[in-house]
Design a protein that fits this description.
By secondary structure, chain A is mainly β. Chain A is 0% helix and 51% strand. In chain B, a hairpin with a 3-residue loop joins strand 5 and strand 6 (53-54). Classes of the chains: A mainly beta, B mainly beta.
Amino acid sequence: QVQVVESGGGVVQPGRSLRLSCATSGFPFSSYTMHWVRQAPGKGLEWVAVISYDGTNKDYSDSVRGRFTISRDKSKNTLYLQMSSLRPEDTAVYYCARWGGGPSSFDIWGQGTMVTVSS
Amino acid sequence: DIQLTQSPSTLSASIRDRVTITCRASQSVSRWLAWYQQKPGKAPKLLIYKASSLESGVPPRFSGSGSGTEFTLTISSLQPDDFATYYCQQYNTYPYTFGQGTKLEIK
């Protein structure tokens, strides 16, 4: 079935780096734009980054631009988020989400992976 | 950035009640607005896209309406499974933004 599964979260010190992965299956990964969305503990949802279906176009929220890099590997059907210069305010559950295409929105979400930035 | 303001922030209701949640945008998003349901510890689930289109598999008691800057999500007859937090989200312009959420509680 269609699914996306995040991994790579954990506890990291401020200023350090971490790479999240999102393994996909059940759909043609190379045909879909993909996003990362995060949710700080007890807070609402915040869009983080997007990458086009072919990886040529990327965009980021102002809060992570210059520190985070989104990428994808079509041979592995996997989406990535490289996070650098992490800050305590980056602490959140990070969700990988598929953009449904056409008029749709985020139609498939993973279960999320928790990132805690703390000394 | 486009700000989305949901009201109310918390809503207490009973089974079989009809409830409406409002989402107001700081500028027009045309009809590029979605609604999600989120339960504790779970990922959001898409309910409505393009303001009023029902996602496949979502019960028809959920409906959406609106355009421009004002949108509503209506649940026609609350069921036990509907008690959750609801978010609106605009996808007219990057950065995509979400409302702050409406927590639907059992009265």
